[in-house]
Structures are given as C-alpha cells and as structure tokens.
Dioxygenase (Pseudonocardia halophobica), 454 residues
Amino acid sequence: MTTTETPLYLQGHLAPVPDEIEAVDLPVTGTLPPELTGRYLRNGPNPLPGENAGHWFAGHGMLHGVRLREGRAEWYRNRWVRTGALEGHPFVRPDGTFDRTAVHANTHVIEHGGRILALVENGLPYVVTPELETVGPDDFAGRLTTAMTAHPKTDPVTGDLHFFGYSPLPPYLTYHRLSAGGELVESAEVPVAGPTMMHDFAVTARHAVFLDLPMTFQMRAGLPYGWDDAYGARLGVMPLDRPGAVRWFEIDPCYVFHVGNAYEDEAGRIVLDVARYTRDAIAATWQAIGPSPSGHAAAAAAAGVATLHRWTIDPAAGTVAQAQLSEAGLEFPTVDDERVGRPNRYLYAVSDTEGILQHDAERGTVAAHGLGPDVVAGEAVFVPSGAPDRAEADGWLLSITTTRDGKASELLVLDATDVAGAPVARVTLPRGVPAGFHGSWIPDEDVRRSTCCP
Ligand SMILES: [Fe+2]
C-alpha cells in the first residue's frame, strides 16, 4: 500500500522491482540504427522485497541491461549486484574500519580496461560480466586502499581513468589514476578541509578539479551527511602531472552532485559546468530522498532543483567567476565522452518537468524533448555515430523512461542533432524500470576485449 508515509524512494517510478527477469525480442517502435550494436547498462538502487534502506541512495545496486544488435532489441535483463551488503555483511566492522566490499554498488556502471565495473562512492568497484552476473570486488591487485567514486573520468586522448576516493575518516580525499589497460598506476592524498561528501569531480586535459563543498560527514540521526555553514566552499585545481599539489579557490557555498564537463580555454582559464544547488535546494532535496520527518508528500513538494552553472577559474588572477547558464531545473548532466576535459558545445541533462534537454553553450539555447506529465526520463547517455570527422552532436541519446506510476518503461533513442524531434526508436521494456542513477553504452568491441570473465 502506498500512503503519504511510504518513503518517496519506495513509491511510483522509484518503487523497486521484486525479482530478476529476462525478456527477448523486445518490441521496437521506429527504427534502431544498426550502428547501435552493444549494450546499454544502467545502475540504480533496488532494495530487496520488503526492505526499507532508509534513504534512496542506500538501496542495493541493480543493473538493467538492454542488448541492441543490428536493428533489433535482443534482450532486457536485470540483476542485483551481488555485494557483501546483499549478503548481509556490515560496512563498519567491530573495530571501526570499513569493509569496502559490503557496499551497495548502486550508482554507475562503466567499462574500463576490459572490465565492466559497478560503482558506488563508499566502496570498491564490483566487476560484472556483459550478461550482468557479478564476478566480485576489484581492488586493482591490492593497490586501491580507498573507496572509488562512482564518477571517474576517462581522458579521451590517453585513455587513462582518473578518479578519487573520499572517506569520513582520514585520509579524507585520495586521487588515483588507472592506465588505459586498467592498472592502478598512481595514488596521492589530496589535502582537504574536512570529511566532505564529494560525489563527482572534473578533469581537463591537464588538471583535476575537486569540489570541496559544505555537505560534510556529521554523525546525526539517520543522515550521516548534512550542510555545515562553517565549512565554506572551494574548488581545488590539481595539475595531473603533480598529484596532490592542489591550489584552492574560494566560491559561494552551494552543493553539486554532478559535473557536466570542464576544459581549459585559450586564455588558460578552467571552465567548469555543473548542476548547482543552493543551500535551500539541497536541504529540501536531501530531505525528500531520505527519511523525511515532515511527511513525504510535504517533502516532495519542497524538493529543490539544481540549475546549470558555469565556473570560470582564472589561475593568473586567482579568481572564480560564476554564471548561471539556464533557468531550467535539471540533473544528470552528460556530454559526448570524446569531449571529456575538452571544449564541448553541447551538454545533455534531464528535467523533471521538461524531459530530456540539450544545452547549446554556443547559442545559449536549450532544446527539450518533452515526455508529458506522466513520464520521467533517466540519464541521457550520448552514443557517437562513429562517422569519421563527425560533428559533436552526430550520434544518439539513450535514456530509460518510466511512467510516474512505475508500471511501464521504454528505452528511448533520440537523434542528438534533433533532440526535440520525434524519437528515432522506442524499445518497449517488459515492465517498469525504477528510475535510477547512471549508465553507459558499451559497444561490442569493448565486450570482445573483456578480460574479466570466461
Ligand atoms: Fe551521480
């Protein structure tokens, strides 16, 4: 039964599914481009039947996968990530240390160095097969001694995977780099003011940028992280060839879950686009997705939104300029992966009211693919067309949409050069897929070089 006292994260389009299923030969409306041959994998929280994890972010990770091949939607399947937490192991051991395999692995799924990794920011990555079966946790031959963010960044030129781990206990922040082949080749502690909740970061061709923001670890009832007025806010710029050497720039306090992209401009400034919450917006949002004491209907009404902001960091002047780029409330910003750390014109995002958005930084305009009041869009992942010398938006956007009652879902395929236009294709999924977090398109050539599993 759903009532106003049922947590928001167990209702409607967020309601978990009770089991693992498979379906083959999915109905397709429109025409799937044959170039889309691979897998769209998406992660999200899905508590076990009857379980209330206490917060949207605390459900066990479940992967949803849709296999496309040469114009057909061959299968859909969903699988829990079989972590230590799913087996009931506690994250905090009796001696106060953390079991980084006893995590939910519920936030993102990526491919790197021939391995598909399910990620969550307080734990080790979990390797899964292309068919979504769990292989096990990966500490990169024992070299990773911290957690791994769910938002690593792959440099499109070197193939290196830059990431960090943060912790409520010292060291609070550690930077790491995997080679293109998947070997952990660098780790360096980054001095930071305190135990900040750092969900995402940015890289450019030459720098990492850390967001040291005032959502900090505080042992309070139910919610271990909260806003700290005294903490301040700053951006940390670290040359990638001098790990650990960070220069901090003060900014107005705010919170950011997600970075869109960052790059160096011709003047040597760092341009950083983010989905930014004000203090009031993050407080309302945090309450709405957690164990709201004020009633969940009230929390839903009060939930805040993030808006697209640009920070321009000028190292020569020692300043950060802040500008709001659009009025739209949005989240899950994404870009063409081949532009990560490089100048991008387009940024994609989702809006609770306007559907899937494409922001054009050159024109300052936003194109929207509306889904109507009864459907919510998941993160829109850009898949390049693969054409030689393609234009930036030459490709497709993939998003799993879910009706607000949670009963039905589609994999939506949009032409990224015509986001507002009719979908290229819609794949009917066999049931509602709970709205979740992040995912990746994994083309078959990446599956073929998979080293993880027989
Ligand atoms: Fe995220």
Remarks:
- Residues 103 and 392 are 37 Å apart (CA to CA).
- The first strand starts at residue 22 and ends at 24.
- Residues 107, 150-151, 199, 257-258, 437-438 surround fe (ii) ion (CB under 6 Å).
- The radius of gyration is 21 Å.
